[in-house]
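Hi R.,

Here's the chain you asked about this morning:
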Amino acid sequence: MTVSSKFQQLEAHASSLIIGQAHLINRMLIALLCDGHLLVEGAPGLAKTRAIKVLSESIEGDFHRLQFTPDLLPADLTGTEIYRPQDGSFEFREGPLFHSLILADEINRAPAKVQSALLEAMEERQITVGDKSYPLSDLFMVMATQNPIEQEGTYPLPEAQLDRFLLHVQVGYPTTEDERRILVLNRDEAKAGERDAFRPPELLAQATIMEARQQILNLHLADELEQYIVNIVVATRDPGVVNEELAGQVLYGASPRACMAIDRASRAHAWLQGRDYVGPEDIQEIAPDVLRHRLVLSFEAEADGIEPDAVIEGVLDGVGVP
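And here is the predicted structure, written out as tokens:
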């Protein structure tokens, strides 16, 4: 079985356990393939936690869920040094960030110091405690969730931290048909008693994931499409140039990190489709999730109720497809 077939099998397995969230499953796999992190926004009860649990049960790696609260401390994430009175020394006890897959539940409920500790782990792939730094696993992915309903008692993520997330995925309600299938699946799982019947036939090895990441980097991306990616990102900084209706709606556009994110993520999207080349449709499909959290809209745009997705759609319409 080829590497891409193993990932397609994993996607099919996850889809059988997470009904009506094909977009979220696909974006989780893209984040895994791109060595990136995922920010997921959606109402409670839409299988966000279940999704990352199913992924963790399907790959070779350990999982830890962190419930972010206002009283959380950085040491609750990173770990701390414990004093040993026997010999007068200090011993470092690893925190939950030393797992492979991390679910940061309601990340915007944690104060700035905690968010800063998580930022170092996400960007530098290391934890610093005292004067020592400890490397994290080669397979390290953070999936953070935000609840868009209740904003009281939250600490909005700063733009610098938002930019560290590869994708920002919005999760919606399932269709009526999917909700019926969810009922049936839930009843079947209750009858089974244990989740063993729903585990994949074999775990996806970390070596396979690393090999897949190399294959993605070798995918063909035409020079014209590279320029197309750059044109899209540059257009977010002054969208009025490509679409007059968007003039004055963006205060700050996407950074060069967005170019790299679209490049990697569109490659992963094409690879999961079984292709060895990237097409314009891959870029257009992935661009909203890459750009959504990287745009800072003007006060006038926010006052008019304009959402980042509307600006991104206008930019994609205005930038010519090669």
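One quick note: Residues 176-192 form the longest helix (17 residues).

Cheers,
M.
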